[in-house]
């Protein structure tokens, strides 16, 4: 089986587009079915368009802008989480972690003691 270079195949395909598959195959000295196979492979292959440098630069700018917006939103959410969670603590009852409000601002151990005392009373 003979192998052809990529450049040869591309030139053969261009020629076959101009003058037809049968004439191009005869001129190039290759089998008709070989050239026809190359054409069907080209036709069925997905077209890959390489974006220009300007398009790539625009896409990079767009992604950088989106990244900056998301980082800003992330910082806002972190601040909001700190604001809303500052008076909450995790306490454990029977090895189960419970997230609850701590209106007294006590450390978790002291809050648990206080909460248990309130339940007992």
Summarize, please:
This protein is mostly helical and 121 residues long. The chain has helices spanning 6-19, 21-28, 32-44, 53-85, 108-120, and strands at 88-93, 96-101.
Give a structural overview.
The chain has helices at residues 6-19, 21-28, 32-44, 53-85, 108-120; strands at residues 88-93, 96-101. The mean pLDDT is 82. It is mainly alpha-helical and 121 residues long. Helix content is 67%, strand content 10%. The chain has 3 domains: 6-44; 50-86; 87-120, no CATH class. It is built from 5 helices and 2 strands, in the order ααααββα. It is rod-shaped. Helix 1 packs across helix 2 (21-28). It has a two-stranded antiparallel ribbon with strand order 1-2.
Placed side by side, the strands forming the largest sheet appear as: 1-2
Number of helical runs? Answer: 5
Oligomer: single chain
What composes the largest sheet?
A: 2 strands, antiparallel
Beta strands, count: 2
* Gyration radius from CA atoms, angstroms: 36 Å
- In the residues, how many domains can be counted? 3
The termini sit apart by 94 Å
The secondary-structure class comes to mainly alpha
Question: Beta-strand level of the residues, as a percent range?
Answer: 5-15%
> Which descriptor suits the 3D outline?
rod-shaped
Question: How do the helices and strands line up, and which of them pair or pack?
Answer:
Layout (H helix, E strand, L loop, with lengths): L5 H14 L1 H8 L3 H13 L8 H33 L2 E6 L2 E6 L6 H13 L1
Helix pairs in contact: 1-2, 2-3
């Amino acid at each position: 089986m003979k192998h052809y270079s990529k450049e040869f195949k591309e030139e053969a395909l261009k020629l076959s587009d101009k003058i037809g598959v049968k004439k191009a195959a005869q001129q190039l000295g290759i089998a008709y079915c070989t050239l026809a196979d190359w054409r069907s492979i080209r036709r069925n292959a997905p077209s890959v368009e390489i974006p220009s440098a300007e398009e790539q630069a625009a896409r990079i700018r767009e992604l950088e802008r989106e990244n900056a917006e998301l980082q800003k939103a992330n910082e806002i959410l972190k601040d909001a989480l700190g604001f809303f969670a500052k008076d909450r603590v995790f306490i454990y009852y029977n090895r189960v972690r419970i997230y609850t409000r701590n209106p007294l601002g006590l450390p978790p151990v002291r809050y648990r003691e206080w909460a248990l005392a309130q339940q007992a009373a």
